[in-house]
C-alpha cells in the first residue's frame, strides 16, 4: 500500500482499489463483494463463507464492513412458520459510484482548504532582501 499521495498517483491502480483507498476495506472484503456481484441470488453469511472458504465469523465481519461502507444491502427473509434469516446483495453500482464521488469531492474540498491554510500560514514570512 502506498504511504503518500505521490505514491498513490504513481502506482497502477484498478477500480477495485477504490474499495481500499476510499473505504479502507481489505482483500477479503473485495473478494466477498466480487462473489456477491457474480451471484444471481442474494447470499446468506453461510453461503458467503463457503464461497470464500473462510469461517462464518470471518465472512460475517467482512460483510459488516461492506454494509457499513454501503457496498452491500441486507434483506430479511421470513419463514412461513415464523422466524427469519438475512441475505446480502450488492448495492447498485451507480449508488456506490455516486457515494464515492461525493466522498472524493468532500476530500478534495478539505485538501483545498488545508492547502489554503498552508499558504496563509507560511506566506506571512517576510522574504529576505537581496543585495
UniProtKB/TrEMBL annotation:
Pfam families, alphabetized: TrmB
- Stored SUPFAM superfamilies: Winged helix' DNA-binding domain
Residue ranges annotated for the Transcription regulator TrmB N-terminal domain, each copy included: 19-93
What organism is recorded for this protein? Halorussus aquaticus
Name the record gives this protein: Helix-turn-helix domain-containing protein
Tell me the InterPro entries matching this sequence.
Answer: ArsR-like_HTH (IPR011991), Tscrpt_reg_TrmB_N (IPR002831), WH-like_DNA-bd_sf (IPR036388), WH_DNA-bd_sf (IPR036390)
Amino acid at each position: 500500500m502506498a504511504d503518500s499521495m505521490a505514491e498513490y498517483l504513481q502506482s497502477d491502480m484498478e477500480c477495485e482499489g477504490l474499495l481500499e483507498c476510499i473505504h479502507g476495506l481489505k482483500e477479503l472484503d473485495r473478494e466477498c463483494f466480487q462473489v456477491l456481484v457474480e451471484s444471481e441470488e442474494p447470499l446468506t453469511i453461510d453461503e458467503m463463507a463457503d464461497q470464500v472458504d473462510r469461517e462464518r465469523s470471518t465472512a460475517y465481519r467482512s460483510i459488516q464492513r461492506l454494509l457499513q461502507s454501503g457496498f452491500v444491502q441486507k434483506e430479511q427473509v421470513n419463514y412461513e412458520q415464523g422466524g427469519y434469516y438475512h441475505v446480502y446483495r450488492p448495492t447498485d453500482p451507480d449508488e456506490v459510484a455516486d457515494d464515492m464521488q461525493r466522498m472524493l469531492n468532500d476530500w478534495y474540498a478539505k485538501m483545498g482548504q488545508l492547502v489554503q491554510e498552508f499558504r496563509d500560514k507560511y506566506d506571512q514570512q517576510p522574504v529576505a532582501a537581496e543585495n
